Amino acid sequence: MEPSHTLPPPQPVTTREVQVLDECLEKYCEWSGQLINREKSGLIFSKLVVRERKRAIKLELNMKAISSAATYLGAPLFTSRSRTKDFKFLQDRLESKLKGWRCKSLSWAGRSTLIKSVAQALPTYTFASSDVPVAVCDKLDAATRRFWWKPNRESGSYLAWKAWDHLCSPKGQGGLGFRKAKKFNDALLAKLTWMVVSDRNSLCIKALRNKYKWVMGRGLIFGKTPGFPGFQTFCQNQGMVQLSGCLVVACLINQNSRSWNLSLLHELFDETSVNAITKIPIPSTPRPDKLVWIHEPKGLFSVKSAYKCNQLEHPHISGSNIWSKLWKLNLHERSKMFIWRLGSGVLPTNLNFFLRVGHGNPKCPLCLTEDESIEHLFFKCNFARAMWFGLSWALRPDLINVASCSDIVELVVNPPMRPGENSCKSLKQRLSIHFALTLEHIWTCRNKAVYKGQVESLSLSLKSLELRMAEHLSRLDGIDNSAVPDNLFWMAPPADVTKLNTDVAVRGNRSTIAVIARGESGAVVKAWAKVVDIEDPLVAEAIAIKWALELAESESFPNVIVESDSKICIDNFSDNSTSSYWKIDALIPDVHRLALHFLSCCFAWVKREANMVAHELAQSFSALSSVFSCNATSLPPSVFEAWKRDLLGLSLA
């Protein structure tokens, strides 16, 4: 309850004001049909309210006072001087979960799933509403880290084979995608900040927004407010410093031609800033300002993208795409987790344990002759060599070049194939399954020898491994048989319709955009190409589609179909939803306006194989001083060959 604005703040709330509040609550119940549970409701009093006054207000509203230890949806309503104690319940809640999991025999993949979906999701509401102390977040991370490396022990020392920073890095960079508690807390609080600064108009956000106001001065000065992609900071010239009055972005645009005022830009900014500004496309008609989150393609804030922005870079972590390919393999999660452990060098082989701890027997438990290195255990040990050669593929592991753990991941993700077989996706998947399951089975046999003292017979090991491979391959065959092959050839348009294929070729900070128009017979009506000062492929693809419609209008084509291999552009131009990609958001109204100039106009996405003529046309020109145009008789040789291939495919269809 706030005092009236006409009264000084120290003056207490009167009895009449309490009665008015009670009447408002009753009116709410009467209008909404709901009933307030007064027994579960509570009042918050400041320290200056005397006891008699508290008693009178509680009696009038039939509610009790909320204690300092009260919580709402598990989060504390008040904090004391010791905020670490206030949020200790998060540690207790996590430990109670971990205690139940410790009595179970969980695989590495099972632990990963529980950590991501349960353990790190427990404090989500508290993290979204409170700034949790770093000490509490560190203890949450410590408990999760212990459960990952030593799931059956609540206390005592344990061996961590990889740093927590590595495990919390993205899966595409060699980590496991675990979340650091404090960074997750910051990302969730950033969502609340975004709600305040954006156009969200809920009652809660309005209340928060009223706490923050602009201090009025000379107005919004262009260059001091961020809002332009492509560079981090502005370098202002002396002209901007001396400029008086308010300079907004609209002042830098020539309203007649809807282009940037280059003379004014060069007067106000340095060359780097001017180049970045001029790469921003300008819509044909003025539009209101829009706040976008540039770390998401559609400009909408997400906690996931905020967390990624808040992550520190780890230069020691490989950014190779083999990790992304590993997690996309059609394998059981347990097998993929094993390959990750193998590739990350965290398998507790005898040699690794000896080098890490300094004691123990480093010899291989299967052959007892050489040290148990990764290379020896999986490729040079007599047992491993017999396993590889005894399977149906009859591979010789001594011919496989493996020098490091990452080479083994590369072997599984990109198995060696003969030149003519590289395009066979099914064969590549079968080889990946073969390598992954063989490596995992060798490790299983090794563990039986170490922990149970059992060295499994070679024939029994081969038989069990063949059965497991057959299970995986039968499932793979079912998926392959259900897949519908895509049309990889260019298709002719209907009668009286012109098909426009567009594509771009990005070279440095410039792009070549190409458009080719063809009729129902497949004959080339006309082809165009030009160079634009755009380095972003998505923006260049959108500009190419817009240019294609402008060319079609100038050629008086009545009915058109626009095809592009940029699915993002086609989806955004075909869909009228408000959540478009922010980089091309300014071009969408222009494309829709141009589409209205035709009797019929539609957009279609095709694969690169069905767009090769436009692709070759864009690749043929790296430097053009003006617009290039030609007909079927003057096509460049590479474009002509691609066109002939399309005609051949058209005749076979």
Report on this structure.
Among the domains are: 15-66, no CATH class; 322-482, no CATH class; 498-652, Nucleotidyltransferase, domain 5 (2-Layer Sandwich), CATH 3.30.420.10. The protein is an alpha/beta fold. It has helices at residues 15-32, 51-61, 83-86, 88-102, 108-119, 124-129, 134-149, 164-167, 181-197, 203-209, 238-242, 262-268, 271-278, 303-310, 322-328, 333-344, 350-357, 374-380, 382-390, 405-413, 425-452, 458-482, 537-554, 567-574, 588-595, 612-619, 637-652; strands spanning 42-43, 64-65, 71-72, 75-76, 253-254, 259-260, 498-507, 510-518, 524-532, 559-564, 600-605, 628-630. The protein is 46% helix and 8% strand. The radius of gyration is 33 Å and the shape is flat. Residues 301-388 form the Reverse transcriptase zinc-binding domain. Residues 501-620 form the RNase H type-1 domain. This is RNase H type-1 domain-containing protein. One of its GO terms (molecular function) is RNA-DNA hybrid ribonuclease activity.
Number of helices: 27
Radius of gyration computed on alpha carbons: 33 Å
Cα(first) to Cα(last) distance is 76 Å
Relative helix content: 40-55%
Instruction: Please state how the strands of the largest beta sheet are arranged side by side.
Output: 11-10-7-8-9-12
Q: Compute the average pLDDT.
A: 85
* Strand proportion: 5-15%
Low-confidence parts: 1-8, 216-221, 314-318, 481-485
Instruction: Give the CA-based shape.
Output: flat
Quickly give the structural class: alpha/beta
Tell me the number of strands.
12
Major β-sheet, in short? 6 strands, mixed
